[in-house]
Structures are given as C-alpha cells and as structure tokens.
C-alpha cells in the first residue's frame, strides 16, 4: 500500500512537471538557453529592456563578462548554450581564449548568434566578422537630414541634436525576418548610432536587412561635429545604401547569425525613443531580429513524402521507364510558435542521375493529411532512361531555413515481354523484309509452275532445227572418209 502511494505521488509530480514544462516552453525550436556577453556585468542595466524582452519569451538568460574564466560555448563538442549574444565590440578576448574559430565551430554545431560591433572595435571582433564574410569600417555615420533632433527633450538621456544618431527605414527581406514590419502598413523608423559594414563576397547565405538612408555618409570618428555641415570624407567612405547596418547569415546547417554595428540600438535609451510625429520602433525591430535568429520564425519542415503510379495509391520501391507517376510532399513553416501551411509556387523537383533529367515545379494544394501543411505535388512521365535516380527537392530562399529532401528510386528498363510488338521507327525494315520475301516467293513460283522454266533437256533437244542435224551428219561422213 505504501509502495502504491509513493508511486502515485511520483506520477503526479512527474505529470505536474511535464505540464509546467509544456506551459513554460519557449517558441524556439533549438532550445531556450541564452548567453549574453558584456564588457562588464554592470552594463546589463543599459540593456534591461532587451533582456526582459527575452525573459518574457521564456528564455533562460545567462549574463557573463567577457573576462569570465567560465565562459564556454562548447564542451566536448556539445553546445553549452543554444544562443549567444555578444554586446562587447571593444573586448579583446572572450573567456580563456575563445577566437573566431571557436565561434565558427559554435555555429557549425547548430548554435545561433547575435554579434554587435561598434566604434573602436577590437582586432578579435574584426577577425570574427571577417570569418563570416563581413568587413566593418571604424567610421562614423553622419546624416544632416535623417538624424535625431529632440528639440522638446522628450528623451533626456540622449543628446538633443546628434547627427551621428541617424534613423532609417531602408529594410529588406522583411517577409520572414522582420515580420512586424512586413505586416505594418506604416513603415517605422529605426534609430542607429554605430558603424557601417560591407559584404565582402556575394553569397546566398548572406542577406542585408537594414541599410543607411540615401543622405547618410561616413567620416572618421574624430571629425564628428554636431553643428557642422562640412566634414571631410575618408578615402574609403560609404554613403547611402552602400553602408550596411544589419546583416543576417544563415549557415548551411540552418544555424543563424546576425551582425549589427551598433549595440546602442538594443539599449534602453533607443528603446525609449518616442516622438509623436514619427513611428520609431527599435524594440519591435530587436524582437523580430532575435525571433528570427533564435529560430522562432521562418523554419521549414517536410512530411508525408509520397509517390505512386498514376491511378494507383501504392508506393513502389522502383518504377519502369516512361511510367506516369505522382510525386508529392507536405511542407509547413514555423511562425510564432505554430506550424502553418507554407504558401509558395516555386518549389521544384529534380530527378537526377549526375545531371538532372527532369526539373519541374510542384503544384500547391490543400493537404488532406494535416491542417498545418500544404501539399506540393506533380504528375509527370519518368524519363526514357533506366538507372538509379535521385529525386531531390532543394529549396533555398532568403529568410527561411533551407529544405533538402532526397530519396533514391531505381528506374528499370522494360522486360523482354513488355516491349511493343512493332516499332514505328522500324516500319522501313519491316517493308523491305516483306518485299524480299514476296520476291523470293514469286521467283520460286515462276520457276516451278511456269511452262518455260519447266522444260526437260530431251524436250529441248527434239525442238532443235533439222539443218543443225544435217550439218552434224555431214561432219561425220567427212571424218569417215
């Protein structure tokens, strides 16, 4: 009786813990452990609103200084944290010697990262950004049109007029990354006080999502003057949209990294900017940015892969050449903690044997198996080529995780009794054979039944002329004489 009571208590405790875990689970598909690295623990008060934003989404947030000896990203190849946020642009070291290769290994292991640069960035941070294909410039952004000008002192913590605190609405790729701004009819302004960067190499894995306005340019930090309209430009000066502010990177394993050139844009002061004449939304911007970086949005999955011959439902392990088959799969997208049907008309299927023999678009339709997925399918004829083929759906789009679905299906030739009796392309050969046979039969018939061909040798001798006989007798008499 006592054992039963203990077991029941343990079961109730386990059930309650499971329910609590389900209720408190955050929306990230990769985990809820977040590490924020600061130059000093005391600096966390500058980012308290940003930290609260993460905690409100049920993230387990740890804050460490860059000099903390316990700072580790990987332990024996396993992730110590699911997500890391670096807000330490001037730091010259992390932990016990974490370098750009350790950061790269962290991302390759599936970790997500938000990395902030800023003025006077350290060589270590420069190497880390360069490892991801970005080049930050230690130059200040200046704008004499789109800059912060708080004449009414609505934000006392900021300078009332600072031409290097700019605002911009040049946003790109907002459909799956900046979802708040793609749905809002009014385009909000983002405040930024930091440095620009450029993308060193073109890559489908790198996407710029925020750039400077057309009137912005860069100058050396030492030559900034809040009230001067004539600053000398640097030789490597950037202007307008060439000055990138925020760039996202999605690795081949779908791990995500975000690089920004301004830790201030995540600070309390920039979250609190509020003017009635404009819409400023650094808070919404940072929320959308971290949701995407931590894989709360824009994640695809494929289910219910199926293929069968036309008019059948059974999935066969192999098919024959020129069979008409139906191939399809269900695709869902994760957004806001829910799986939803993915809407697109550019999902392609390739049938390959070294080179693609068939490349065709899959048609979307309502899934019969799930309310949270869209079925993409196509009916087509297999190639007139036998061998081992690979059926590939390799879907890559900016802002969403890449989807790779592969399965190997052999395509066999026809058996000897499955070939057609007569081939159209062989009709000339059939005709010549019949003509040859017909000619042979006609000649044989004529030889056998014709009276001219049917004469015996004796009949031919008797039909010889008398003059020829006389000549032969006279020849005999001459010989006897």
From TrEMBL:
OST48 N-terminal domain boundaries: 33-293
Sequence segments annotated as region (Disordered): 455-481
Transmembrane segments: 427-448
One GO MF term: transferase activity
GO annotation terms (biological process): protein N-linked glycosylation via asparagine
Bilayer topology term: Single-pass type I membrane protein
Keyword Endoplasmic reticulum: yes
Domain OST48 middle: 307-450
GO cellular component, one term: oligosaccharyltransferase complex
Cellular localization per UniProt: Endoplasmic reticulum membrane; Membrane
Pathway entry: Protein modification; protein glycosylation
Alphabetical keyword list: Endoplasmic reticulum, Membrane, Signal, Transferase, Transmembrane, Transmembrane helix
Function: Subunit of the oligosaccharyl transferase (OST) complex that catalyzes the initial transfer of a defined glycan (Glc(3)Man(9)GlcNAc(2) in eukaryotes) from the lipid carrier dolichol-pyrophosphate to an asparagine residue within an Asn-X-Ser/Thr consensus motif in nascent polypeptide chains, the first step in protein N-glycosylation. N-glycosylation occurs cotranslationally and the complex associates with the Sec61 complex at the channel-forming translocon complex that mediates protein translocation across the endoplasmic reticulum (ER).
Subunit structure: Component of the oligosaccharyltransferase (OST) complex.
UniProt protein name: Dolichyl-diphosphooligosaccharide--protein glycosyltransferase subunit WBP1
């Amino acid at each position: 009786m006592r054992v039963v009571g203990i077991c029941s208590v343990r079961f109730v405790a386990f059930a309650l813990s499971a329910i609590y875990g389900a209720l408190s689970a955050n929306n990230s598909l990769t985990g809820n452990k977040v590490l924020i690295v600061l130059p000093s623990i005391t600096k966390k008060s500058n980012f308290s609103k940003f930290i609260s934003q993460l905690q409100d989404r049920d993230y387990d947030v740890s804050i460490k200084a860059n000099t903390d000896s316990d700072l580790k990203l990987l332990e024996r190849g396993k992730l110590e944290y699911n997500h890391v946020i670096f807000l330490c642009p001037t730091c010259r070291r992390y932990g016990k010697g974490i370098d750009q290769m350790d950061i790269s290994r962290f991302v390759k292991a599936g970790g997500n990262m938000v990395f902030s640069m800023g003025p006077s960035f350290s060589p270590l941070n420069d190497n880390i950004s360069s490892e991801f294909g970005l080049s930050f410039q230690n130059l200040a952004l200046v704008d004499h049109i789109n800059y912060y000008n708080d004449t009414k002192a609505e934000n006392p913590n900021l300078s009332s007029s600072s031409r290097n605190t700019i605002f911009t609405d040049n946003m790109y790729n907002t459909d799956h990354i900046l979802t708040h701004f793609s749905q809002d009819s009014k385009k909000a302004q983002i405040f930024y006080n930091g440095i620009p960067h450029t993308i060193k190499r073109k890559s489908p894995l790198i996407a710029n999502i925020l750039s400077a306005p057309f009137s912005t340019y860069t100058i050396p930090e030492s030559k900034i003057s809040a009230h001067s309209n004539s600053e000398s430009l640097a030789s490597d000066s950037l202007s307008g949209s060439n000055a990138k502010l925020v760039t996202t990177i999605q690795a081949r394993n779908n791990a995500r990294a975000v690089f920004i050139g301004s830790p201030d844009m995540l600070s309390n002061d920039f979250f609190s900017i509020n003017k009635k004449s404009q819409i400023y939304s650094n808070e919404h911007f940072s929320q959308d940015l971290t949701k995407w970086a931590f894989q709360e949005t824009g994640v695809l999955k494929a289910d219910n892969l199926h293929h069968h011959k036309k008019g059948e439902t059974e999935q066969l392990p192999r098919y024959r050449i020129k069979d008409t088959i139906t191939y399809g799969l269900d695709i869902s997208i994760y957004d806001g903690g829910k799986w939803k049907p993915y809407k697109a008309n550019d999902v392609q299927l390739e049938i390959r044997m070294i080179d693609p023999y068939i490349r065709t678009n899959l048609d979307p339709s309502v899934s019969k198996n799930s309310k949270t997925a869209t079925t993409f399918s196509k009916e087509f004829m297999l190639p007139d080529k036998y061998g081992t083929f690979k059926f590939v759906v390799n879907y890559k789009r900016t802002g969403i995780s890449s989807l790779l679905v592969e399965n190997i299906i052999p395509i066999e030739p026809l058996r000897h009794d499955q070939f057609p009796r007569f081939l159209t392309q062989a009709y000339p050969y059939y005709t010549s054979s019949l003509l040859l046979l017909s000619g042979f039969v006609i000649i044989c018939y004529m030889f056998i039944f014709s009276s001219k061909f049917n004469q015996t040798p004796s009949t031919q001798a008797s039909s010889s002329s008398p003059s020829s006989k006389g000549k032969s007798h006279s020849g005999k008499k001459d010989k006897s004489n």
